[in-house]
Write a structure and sequence with these properties.
Structural class: alpha+beta
Distance between the termini: 106 Å
CATH architecture of the largest domain: Sandwich
Strand order of the largest sheet: 10-11-15-14
Shape: elongated
Number of domains: 4
CATH superfamily of the largest domain: Urease metallochaperone UreE, N-terminal domain
Number of helices: 10
CATH class of the largest domain: Mainly Beta
CATH topology of the largest domain: HSP40/DNAj peptide-binding domain
Largest sheet: 4 strands, mixed
Radius of gyration: 41 Å
Length: about 375
């Protein structure tokens, strides 16, 4: 009788995992498709027979007791290939669990869903609670996800006997090669629905419109996605739902624009107010706030109102409100107004002002030069 332990290069105390590892290592080296050297095929058959015996608890016990492992196993005599599975060879080469897969579950995770939510800028500043109406798949209320008409249930597949797969045996140079494939009669589930649910046609889910409340956090911007775990599509067979992603779109505001977490707006100032300075109440998202215009304000100058911008999405605090001044030059003057302006021009020595050309945009060196001149 062959020494199977010696053939695999292992001791008699080797565990099942050590036996499998030894076979994998030698099979990758001796398989005829990999090693064309003369004698490799016979060596491969030898280690395959050794593994066939030592990987089977009953055969291994008979062999260790000195009996014929194949005769004890009821295989009709000794010899390589009696009941040897092709999955053992695949397991040796790919290291995967090439054993039978068993029936697959009818319950699968549902797909994720994406919806768009339009909100106002004020809701982005402070946050809001919105109500979403979405069309998704939900668990069938009639069969509760089972897919069968209530009271009927499922029955074991007569073809695969509930295994979810069928096996075929073919002869090859390895002996009897066994392969498995999903059962076509039950689609691999191992059970058959003889009376599908009338409501969901056996799917265990139906499409419907539902509403849910969403808390929009303060500080969101267009493009921000909010994830709601398990609120997406319910899976086949009433499986767990996927996730729902809500993509936020902030509507344009008639007064304010957003840049980062700062808000920007423009105020129109009469020429006299810009020159003399003024103050007035400005409507903000926080209500009326005092805005002070410094004397001599120029067109394009800005005033910053701290903490009146958008709430930081991550972290505490808020951005600022930046107010841009747009100084209005009068286009129509009464004779009296024109006379007063001429008197002002005389007082300021501006009867015949000379224009001065300025570059459209000063570079870094120009700005540094102006700064030193100011000193």
């Amino acid at each position: 009788m062959n020494d199977y332990y010696k053939d695999l290069g292992i001791s008699r105390e080797a565990t099942a995992e050590e036996i499998k590892r030894a076979y994998r290592r030698m099979a990758r080296r001796l398989h005829p498709d990999v090693n064309p050297v003369e004698g490799a095929e016979e060596e491969f058959k030898k280690i395959s027979q050794a593994y066939d015996v030592l990987s089977d608890a009953d055969k291994k016990h008979s062999y260790d007791m000195g009996a014929d492992p194949y005769a004890a196993a009821g295989s009709g005599g000794a010899g390589f290939g009696q009941g040897f599975s092709f999955s053992d060879v695949m397991d040796a080469f790919f290291g995967g669990q090439a054993t039978t897969r068993g029936p697959r579950s009818r319950q699968l995770r549902g797909q994720d869903a994406l919806v768009r939510l339009d909100i106002d800028l004020g809701d982005a500043v402070f946050g809001a609670e919105e109500e979403l109406t979405i069309d998704t798949a939900v668990t069938c209320g009639t069969c509760h996800g089972e897919g069968a008409q209530p009271g009927t249930g499922t029955s074991t597949c007569a073809v695969c006997q509930g295994r979810g797969e069928v096996q075929t045996v073919q002869r090859s140079f390895l002996g009897q090669v066994m392969t498995s494939r999903p059962c076509q009669a039950c689609q691999g589930f191992g059970t058959v629905i003889s009376n599908p649910c009338f409501e969901c046609s056996g799917q265990g889910r139906v499409r419907t419109r539902r509403t849910l409340k969403l808390r929009v956090p303060a500080g969101v911007d267009s493009g921000t996605r909010i994830q709601l775990a398990g609120e997406g599509e319910v899976g086949p067979g009433g499986g767990p739902g996927g996730d729902l992603y809500v993509e936020v779109a902030v509507r344009p505001h008639e007064t304010y624009t957003r840049r980062g977490d700062d808000l920007h707006c423009t105020v129109e100032l009469p020429m006299s107010a810009a020159a003399l300075g003024t103050s007035f109440k400005l409507s903000t998202f926080d209500g009326k706030s005092d805005l002070v215009i410094a004397p001599g304000t120029q067109a394009g100058d800005t005033s910053t109102m701290r903490g009146l911008g958008v709430t930081h999405l991550r972290g505490s605090g808020r951005g600022d409100l930046i107010v841009h001044a747009n100084v209005q030059t009068p286009t129509r003057l009464t004779p009296e107004q024109e006379d007063l302006l001429q008197q002002l021009a005389v007082l300021r020595g501006e009867e015949r002002p000379e224009g001065r050309l300025e570059p459209l945009e000063k570079g870094l060196l120009g700005k540094l030069r102006d700064a030193f001149k100011a000193k």
